[in-house]
Specification:
The protein is α/β, with parallel strands linked by helices. Helix content is 33%, strand content 21%. The protein folds into two domains: 130 residues, Leucine Dehydrogenase, chain A, domain 1 (Rossmann fold, 3-Layer(aba) Sandwich), CATH 3.40.50.10860; 127 residues, 3-Layer(aba) Sandwich (Rossmann fold). It contains nine helices and twelve strands.
Length: 285
């Protein structure tokens, strides 16, 4: 048992939060790490978010994970924000130190660390399918890796053109451009692409739902990642593996980003295998 006057507590805030496996993973990580910490899950509507955050500050919660819709609205309440979180405008992990809230984004960092186990991103060309919140968070982090170019592919280029220009201006990228995805025309992946990321919800709960990507155009050796974690093996990953491409599934990505939050809060190393077993049990995989 802890000798501290108050137990260390972390939490998740979002709306909705039903079915979110974060608490299950972190409680297991705390137990395996022999840390007398607790993790709570709160469903917090937008109208109550400011008050809930104030309560977490008052009660000394050590860490806070944020789920939509709060990741883009929290920045003005924080004393410090990491450069990547500032660029993408998204915070999913908060650490409280001496009453001050420090915001970070572990989504892109998780993917970057996983990719760098396979390839060197310096000088790489990266293609991201999607233009939403997660596509921006991943791009903001990967732009810090000395990559050469990021190409966003989406059906509505106007939704991310401004961000792509800002990303090119604020980082060392040589180029950040947007390519329109035409209806009925599969995407032909650039021959020099070294990392292809599906940052869309396509395939969620439907493992056979297809992305408009010409699989035959995938360059040999390109790493292919998908953010969908249930099911972990999507149509894109299944076909990429058949082509011999290294892959990163959404479940591994989810575990890594939550493990990074654990390490930010505790200073200890997260047992990723224990977290995987916990989330697989939770999701009945």
């Amino acid at each position: 048992m802890t000798n501290q006057p108050q137990q260390d507590v972390c939490c998740l805030m979002g709306d909705p939060v039903a079915g979110n496996p974060t608490q299950y993973m972190l409680e297991k990580a705390f137990a395996v790490g022999r840390l007398d910490w607790r993790f709570l899950t709160f469903e917090v509507p937008t109208i109550d978010f400011e008050g809930a955050l104030r309560g977490a500050r008052i009660f000394g919660f050590h860490g806070i994970m944020l789920a939509p819709p709060h990741r883009s609205t929290v920045l003005s309440y924080l004393e410090e924000v990491s450069p990547v979180a500032q660029i993408c405008g998204q915070v999913n992990c908060i650490r409280q130190t001496q009453g001050k809230l420090h915001g970070d984004n572990t989504e892109g960092r998780a993917l970057r660390q996983l990719v760098e186990q396979t390839i060197d991103l310096a000088g790489a060309q990266i293609t991201i399918v999607g233009s939403g919140r997660l596509a921006r968070a991943l791009g903001a982090e990967l732009a810090q890796s000395a990559a050469r170019e990021i190409v966003y592919v989406c059906r509505r280029p106007e939704t991310i053109e401004k961000f792509s220009h800002e990303l090119a201006q604020q980082t060392s990228l040589q180029s950040c451009r947007v390519q329109a995805l035409e209806t009925g025309t599969p995407l032909a992946v650039d021959a020099d692409c070294q990392l292809l990321i599906d940052a869309t919800p396509v395939g969620r709960q439907q493992p056979h739902e297809q992305l408009p990507i010409a699989i035959d155009s995938l360059p040999a050796g390109a790493v292919v990642a998908d953010v969908v974690y249930n099911p972990p093996l999507t149509w894109l990953l299944r076909n990429a593996r058949e082509k011999g491409c290294p892959t990163i599934d959404g479940l591994t990505l989810l575990i890594e980003q939550v493990a990074l939050a654990f390490e930010i809060w505790t200073g200890a190393t997260a047992d990723r295998q224990a977290m995987r077993e916990a989330v697989e049990e939770f999701l009945v995989l």
